[in-house]
Specification:
Blueprint (H helix, E strand, L loop, with lengths): L1 H14 L3 E2 L16 E6 L11 H11 L5 E5 L17 H18 L2 E4 L11 H15 L4 E3 L9 E5 L2 E5 L3 H4 L17 H13 L5 E5 L16 H5 L14 H12 L10 H16 L4 E4 L5 E5 L5 E5 L16 E5 L3 E7 L5 E8 L5 E8 L4
Parallel strand pairs: 2-3, 3-4, 4-5, 7-8, 8-9, 9-11
Antiparallel strand pairs: 1-12, 2-13, 6-7, 10-11, 10-12, 13-14, 14-15
Length: 378
């Protein structure tokens, strides 16, 4: 009983942590004539408000400042909770609306956009088909300026050279998907087997030709949220909220078992899982050989900036629709951790310097830069 009480008290104290603010001074905004590209990163936006989504309103406004040099990257979980179903499904119309609202936010701005699938876009035995349906809708609604990459449900890597920056995208859920088929190798139009994918990623980073490099995927390498084993008091006392958001039934003893099971690796969506762990190890092996400036992901419903022991910056931009936030706390290397809705922007200078801005969004759709830093030395 004493051990149980101590565990619950520890969870309560940990659950109170909702933000870590940077101790370094903000970086002044760059003059417009010293920015050659602005890259926006947003994830987990798959349930936008049908009456007008504040985060998308803020994103459109940000893109419209310089649409000719702006690109928005949606890093997965673009349709909660089970991707795009078959068109005969009663859920199809709402799922399509959720995706097209995000595509439309880019189209309305005149900028470009890229969608990357996440675990909810792949969810279920028909996950590959759902990803293909999403790819078709993005192409149909994207006005020639918005695409889904990597194509055909392949793991990638897919690459875009944008001025002095090379952005490489991988579909991390391809590795973790287990409930249905997935494209395998060159016979399905993909790069090859898992080893070939990582070799191709290494090559793309090594042959960037002097460009700064960024890598984007849905799943982070490190984080201070539930997928990394950090839970709030709500998870311990009200575990049924993970089944239905309105189930506020207090079950403290049963609730203690929920985080324990997650930390034991029961879900492939958690870093404690062996398959997820192998994915992290493989990516970190590539990044040790040819380090990018940052690895950018979502999955956790928060905004985080973490400096890894290797010096790599891990950015987590998972606040894609207003109010969809979860507990976040500090881990080793945390520079910023905010349980807030919003997104991140990376401004690129002509000589390849990268300025990161972390933007939070209020209910009215107004964005505020909460923190900023150089991802590369000025």
């Amino acid at each position: 009983m004493r051990r149980c009480t101590a565990a619950i008290l520890t969870a309560l104290l940990a659950g109170c942590v909702q933000q870590v603010l940077p101790k370094t001074a903000p970086v002044p905004a760059l003059p417009a004539d010293s920015v050659v590209a602005s890259l926006f990163f947003i994830s987990d936006g798959g349930r936008p408000d049908p009456d007008g989504e504040p985060v998308l309103q803020a994103l459109t406004a940000g893109l419209m400042r310089a649409p000719e040099r702006s690109v928005a990257f949606f890093l997965g979980d673009n349709v909660y909770y089970s991707g795009i179903p078959d068109s005969t499904s009663p859920d199809y119309a709402e799922a399509r609306r959720r995706l097209t609202a995000q595509v439309g936010a880019v189209v309305a701005s005149g900028a470009r956009g890229v969608f990357l699938p996440g675990n909810h876009d792949w969810k279920g035995p028909e996950g590959w088909s759902a990803v293909l349906r999403a790819e078709a809708i993005v192409a149909e609604e994207g006005a020639g300026r918005v695409v889904q990459l990597p194509g055909n449900g392949c793991p990638g890597p897919a690459t875009m050279d944008i001025g002095p920056v090379r952005l490489v995208m991988i579909d991390t859920e391809w590795w973790l998907h287990k409930t249905g088929p997935r494209p395998e190798g060159t016979e399905d139009g993909c790069t090859g087997d898992e080893h070939a994918v990582f070799d191709s990623l290494r090559t793309l980073l090594a042959t960037a030709g002097g460009r700064q490099t960024l890598v984007a995927g849905h799943h982070p390498l490190a984080a201070g949220g539930e997928h990394a084993g950090y839970f709030s008091w709500k998870d311990y006392f009200f575990p049924l909220r993970h089944l239905r958001s309105w189930l506020w039934l207090p079950l403290p003893v049963i609730g203690a078992a929920y985080p324990a099971a997650r930390n034991a690796g029961i879900s492939r969506q958690d870093m404690s899982n062996k398959t997820y762990g192998r994915l992290i190890d493989s990516l970190e092996s590539v990044f040790r050989d040819v380090p990018p400036a940052a690895y950018i992901a979502g999955h956790e419903h928060s905004l985080q900036v973490i400096e890894m022991p290797s010096g790599l910056y891990q950015l987590v931009s998972g606040g894609g629709y207003y109010g969809h936030i979860d507990f976040v706390g500090p881990i080793d290397g945390t520079w910023l951790a905010l349980a807030r809705s919003g997104f991140m922007r990376v401004d690129v200078t002509p000589d390849g310097r990268l300025r990161l801005g972390v933007l939070t969004v209020d209910r009215a759709g107004h964005a505020r830069e909460a923190a900023s830093m150089w991802l590369t030395r000025p």
